[in-house]
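2.7 Reproducibility. Because tokenized structures are sensitive to small changes in the input, we list the exact sequence used for Phosphate transporter, including any N-terminal residues retained from the expression construct. No trimming or masking was applied before prediction.
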Amino acid sequence: MTDKPQTPNQWRTLDKDLGRIIKIEKATQYVGQPLVAPGIAFAFILLAALTAGLFFGKGDTSFVVIAAAALGAYMALNIGANDVANNMGPAVGANALTMGGAIVIAALFESAGALLAGGDVVSTISKGIIDPTGLGDPQVFIWAMMSALVSSALWVNLATYVGAPVSTTHSVVGGVMGAGIAAAGLSAVNWTTMGAIAASWVISPVLGGVIAALFLAFIKHNIIYQDDKIAAARRWVPVLIGVMAGVFATYLAMKGLKKIVSIDLPTALTIGVVIGAIFYVTTAPLIRRQSEGMENRNRSIKALFVIPLVFSAALLSFAHGANDVANAVGPLAAIVHTEEFGSFAAKVEIPTWVMVIGALGISFGLFLFGPKLIQMVGSQITKLNPMRAYCVALSAAITVIVASWLGLPVSSTHIAVGAVFGVGFYREYHLERRKKKGAKLKPPEKLPAAERKRRKLVRRSHFMTIVAAWVITVPAAAVLSSLVFYLIHILRAVA
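Resulting structure tokens (single pass, no recycling of outputs):
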């Protein structure tokens, strides 16, 4: 018995059925792709909670620590998604690093900074915003810290979603302040400290922008506009690399090595000068060798800044991991200590398992959600090249050192993004100045006035969005935190 041959109509029917199956598979993949990152993030949060249960088995009280660990992991994911963009964005925007390369380098150095040099002894109340003893009951303090974690994480998550780089430090500060007010009234807050933090909203970005603009002006005047650009680069690029090495050595000595040894500012500056001199002597012959045979044009000069820019981005990530991991795990460490000993402590030692949650959370957040903000900072505010991005990285480190010397509480986010704006605004100023002097420039396109305004070197829409997000971060996190605290209080009363 033989099978009947397939008719053309049957083949067409089979093709249609296969086509429908393929469309269903493609639709499933399209719908499923956006769920992959949240799914991995949820799995990490669950793993953090399980880790807390494993290391903190204290009966009923462990459930509080488990919940706090999950919230700390959620906060760490958001720090990685938002804050790390400030370190890697300029290098990616300048095409010195690919997005994948930037994520790998940042994940490695953020984790190394957090685990090797982070979490020495952190203030559990975030820079003295509230006095824990003023809250009375240790349980009230625990719920206040939980509220701060929830509110700050939600706010940073929202900012990342809309594409606004905000300060996670200020988010935590706002969360702690709001919970403190909800728990014990306005008197619980140290308003002097809050005033200094409010002042840093202006000081951080302006100082970062001015320093970055000054370095860019120096490079243009001493290298770009010289007749022999290569000779000028051989003279000044090693100097700039030495400055970079010295600044980062000072920065890491002050901020990144507290866990190993405590170093004051004069000692850190001395270390910086010595390291800077060593790098100048070492790199001068290397730059001379690299520049041999290069054409006398700007593109050649940009190539000389690529490797120093990559190193500066990596070092910024290390320092960021050493310092900002406390934003995620500081409140968690406070909760763990209070649950374990049943009492307050102004400062606590962060357990290793808590530090690991913070370090891995930052890396996962960067990998899963970081590209959006990296692209924003690196290419959507103003156009960056290796020289401009180098000025941004150098400005960020110098500004933090100056602010520490002056005793000003500043935000690394505000400094880095302010430096990007400073570079962009300087480019606009410099272009207008050259036009007035009659320099030969590329003939401008004939565009309507509105379009010319839109095409300025700094995108005004991003500028307004970011500044608005900065201004409302502390009050928004505070309001959200107080609402969460009241909700927890109501639920506890009902239970």
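The chain has 17 helices and two strands.
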